Amino acid sequence: MQITYNENRKTFKIDTENSSYVMIVRKGGHLQHMYYGAYVGDDDLEYMFSDVINESFTPWPPCAEDSHFALDTQPQEYPCNGTGDYRISAFSLEMPCGNSATSLKYVSHEIFSGKKKLSGLPATYVEDEADAVTLEIKMRDELACADVILSYSVIKGYDAIMRHTRVLNSGKAPFFIEKAYSCCVDFNEKDYDIIHFYGTWAAERQMERKPVIQGISEIASKRGSSSHNHNPFIVLCDHMATEDFGSVYGFALCYSGNFSAKVEVDTFDQTRVIMGINPEDFKWKLSPGEEFTSPEAIMVYSSNGIGGMSRQYHKIIRKHICRGKYRDIRRPILINNWEATYFEFTTEKLYAIADAAAPLGIEMLVLDDGWFATRNDDKTSIGDWIVNENKLQGGLKALSDKLTSLNMKLGLWFEPEIVSFDSDLYRAHPDWVLHVEGRDRSIGRYTAVLDLSRKEVEDYVFEAVSKILRSADISYVKWDFNRNLTEVGSKALPCDQQKEVFHRYVLGVYSLAERLTSTFPDILFEGCSGGGGRFDCGMFYYFPQIWTSDDTDAFERCKIQYGSSVGYPASVMSAHVSASPNHQTFREMPFKTRGDVATSGAFGYELDLSIISEEEKEMVKAQVERYKELYDTIVNGDNYRLIDPFTNNRWCAWEYVSEDKSQAVLTYVVTRFKVKGRYHIKLKGLDPDATYREKVSGRCYKGNTLMNVGINLGNDLHEAHSDIVVFDKV
Ligand code: GLA
């Protein structure tokens, strides 16, 4: 890991363990991109700049001595709008004169150890300054009096580059930032596929892979959250790249609001990728002396295929994004009452579920929606965080005492950002929600979204939630968010700042999350947004796990968890065993299969344990025991995807290998019965020379046998058959 500046050539070179990134300051201070990919030595790469031009239609800046220095045809580092590069731009300002022709020129740079925090935003961190190096390049738009700092950090041991941008107004008049993407990378070729993760409620992060096309493709959200529909994570890879081979570039945004990732292939077959806050509905007024910080983009390069990239992200998220006590310790195995009772729980029912759960080894009861005010359905009461003692007799205190007597902990559901139209809070403060004066207020699940861009609203929610958290022994919070934003305006801001509200809202959410998680450091916070509607690196900074999806059907979960695993580790994916037939898909599924699939995540149950059979109880006990045993390998190990449920319609499989390669955990699920089907599979990531013993049969194999010959799982496995096969090094 190092960052160097070559004074003679005016080049910056960022080296991670196995990748290099090179930039150059050229004529007139234009900062140009030279290379990103597998590690290269110190050659002068300027010969690679193309001098293709079209004198009439590729204008050149006056600083160029000849027409061959056209910004439009050469790679740029942080391209601006309106001054000669017609491709997608990363940055644009509206100056006081009303014009948006923007131009940034190199001023100076600084290289230092460590990595700065991003003001008000989640980002990767290091615990020891010596583990990171940062380069800050100061650029300036002279006419607008805007200083722009491009920041690049690398962390020891990773092939990742973290980038963000800071904009400072060093002039005497305000200007408006129209867009400030977090990263831009120009590639010389167009021979890439893009992989992205689309979906909807109950079907998040479905994986799609397509070649990039001439013109612009965009993966984005303008819903106010990162959304179920698209994820702020994309992959660009060689057409031939597989799980194990080929060049792969990952782009993940540490942000939970409106984002945009664009890929453009230009007429000269060059590819540009940009990622950052979505400029649609965004415009930020920056007054003299003020600074704006973009979210962080995490770029990962792997020459070992998609799997190599995923394993980098998994470690970065686990060790350099997730924080707090639960980053490193095992999370409690829980039972959540939502699908067991929905709103219709009674104190007796909760006690019965807890009584059934405790002897099975379950460690926590999570009381989901419906414990407050008069909430007996989804039409009312969110925002009125007062325990409904008619429903919960003796209140939270009695419930936590009961759980303590069973050696269990209590978890509680909240939806801090939301208010029901039918609530005392809304009646008292109708202007505390995002709204546009004079416009109808759209309804989402009978609620509106609180205007968390306003400090007094944030303070109110902080106090209301804190009061409950202090009132009983609460160990876990499920922080839900069941709505996308509409009529995004704030009563507290003037007209020329209304387009700041989307981003100010996200900053408010982060501020509230920071205050609550730091005030209650012993509480495990789980994120949720109708399942995985806000499942991104920004959220993991506050919540080390997120409810992956409301769809707990094992077949659907194979896809959801597999797609999610391309960017995110098992440690952040909450996964529960629910009832059969499944409440979302109505599909019947064996108890074992539901348990096997949920084991690859932050494990728990979501069904009425007080009414399941004795045989099922025994299975719960065994699943809980097994999870505790395999926890370290699954949560801290290396993940290998083996059979892809998006392209294989017969079965799917994945594997975790402990960091020291002493254990491998293989999970497979047969998704469609095939008469006389054969099931054999090759493992990955083992120590080739070691001997591994398969736990159940006791049979021993060499690591290289398991990886090259594979194992035989038998014939005629019925539909929905699954298993977890464990190999221990002997
Ligand atoms: C969302 C969550 C569910 C549950 C309900 C409660 O849909 O994803 O798990 O908490 O809200 O209303």
Short description:
The chain is of the alpha+beta class. The chain has 12 helices and 39 strands. The relative contact order is 0.09.
Q: How much of the polypeptide forms β-strand, as a percent range?
A: 25-35%
Largest sheet: 10 strands, antiparallel
The percent of residues in helical segments reads: 10-25%
Ligand inventory:
alpha-D-galactopyranose
Please state the CA-atom Rg, rounded to the nearest Å. 27 Å
- Mean pLDDT over the residues: 97
The number of distinct helices, counting runs of at least 4 residues, comes to 12
> Which regions contain 5 or more consecutive residues with pLDDT less than 50?
none
Q: SS-based structural class?
A: alpha+beta
Termini separation comes to 35 Å
Number of strands: 39
Structure description:
This protein has 730 residues and is of the alpha+beta class. The chain is built from twelve helices and 39 strands. The two termini are 35 Å apart. The model has no long low-confidence stretch (mean pLDDT 97). It binds alpha-D-galactopyranose (GLA). Alpha-D-galactopyranose (GLA) is lined by residues 338, 368-369, 413, 480, 482, 528, 530-531, 547, 550.
What does the secondary structure layout of this molecule look like, with pairings?
Layout: E1 2-6, E2 11-15, E3 19-26, E4 30-38, E5 91-94, E6 105-113, E7 132-141, E8 146-155, E9 160-169, E10 175-180, E11 183-187, E12 192-200, E13 203-211, E14 215-220, E15 233-238, E16 248-254, E17 259-265, E18 271-277, E19 284-286, E20 291-293, E21 296-302, H1 305-321, E22 334-336, H2 338-341, H3 347-357, E23 364-367, H4 395-405, E24 409-414, E25 418-420, H5 424-428, E26 447-449, H6 455-471, E27 474-479, H7 501-519, E28 524-527, H8 537-540, E29 545-547, H9 554-565, E30 573-578, H10 591-598, E31 602-606, H11 614-636, E32 638-643, E33 651-657, E34 663-670, E35 678-681, E36 691-694, E37 700-702, H12 703-708, E38 711-715, E39 722-729
Parallel strand pairs: 22-23, 22-31, 23-24, 24-27, 27-28, 28-29, 29-30, 30-31
Antiparallel strand pairs: 1-2, 2-3, 3-4, 5-10, 6-7, 7-8, 8-9, 9-20, 9-21, 10-19, 11-18, 12-13, 12-15, 14-17, 15-16, 16-21, 17-18, 25-26, 32-33, 33-34, 34-39, 35-38, 36-37, 36-39
Helix pairs in contact: 6-7, 10-11
The protein binds alpha-D-galactopyranose.
Alpha-D-galactopyranose binds at residues 338, 368-369, 413, 480, 482, 528, 530-531, 547, 550.
